[in-house]
Amino acid sequence: MAFLGIDWGKILSVPFWLDVRPGELSPLFEKYFLAVLFFSYFFYFLSCFLKKRFVSRRNFIKANFWRKFSTFCLTMAVSFTFIFFFRYEAIPFLGGRFWILIWLIAGIIWLGFLLKYYFINLPQELKKLEEKKKFSQYLSNARKK
Fold first, then answer.
1. What is the per-residue DSSP string for 81-126?
2. Does pTM top 0.85 for this prediction?
């Protein structure tokens, strides 16, 4: 059962992931690793750009989300760089496949928290800010009189 050059029967087995000496990377997996690294660093730089853009527009609530997202991307990229290095050098234990699995699970959990913040907390904060602006509008008029 091979698809995209991957034997999926092997990948879904527990001994495959817990092997401490997985051997050398195939050229196909090197390309996959480098693609993941490229996209991680690309999204990091993109989120930094968006964060600066929102800060310059004085939209600090949305800038806070992009700050959190850039931290996520940088952490995932740097940790995956170390995983790739140890895997490429075939270092026992540190080059084990289980690190990729741990990295993937941690990334999914962290991304879940980011999505929760974006879809639940961010609209609430924006609504509170609008209410505060509306309320302060009346206070500033009262001070002028």
1. HHHHHHHHTT-TTTT-THHHHHHHHHHHHHHHHHHHIIIIIHHHHH
2. no
